[in-house]
Amino acid sequence: MQNEQIKKEKLIKAIREASPEGQTSCAKIFALADEHGISRKEMGDLVNDLKIKIRNCQLGCF
Which has fewest Cβ within 10 Å: 9, 43, 46, 60? Predict the structure, then answer.
């Protein structure tokens, strides 16, 4: 359980580092999801929870 919390904290730190000014791109978020072994859906939920805005969306949604 503690190991999972440490992994989540590392992931959150990586997301914040990839999101200067509270913004990042889909490509960066997709790469972090792959690097940390989580689904893009889980990553999207986490990014939303952290209130990080997505720009340069590959789907043209944001």
Answer: 60
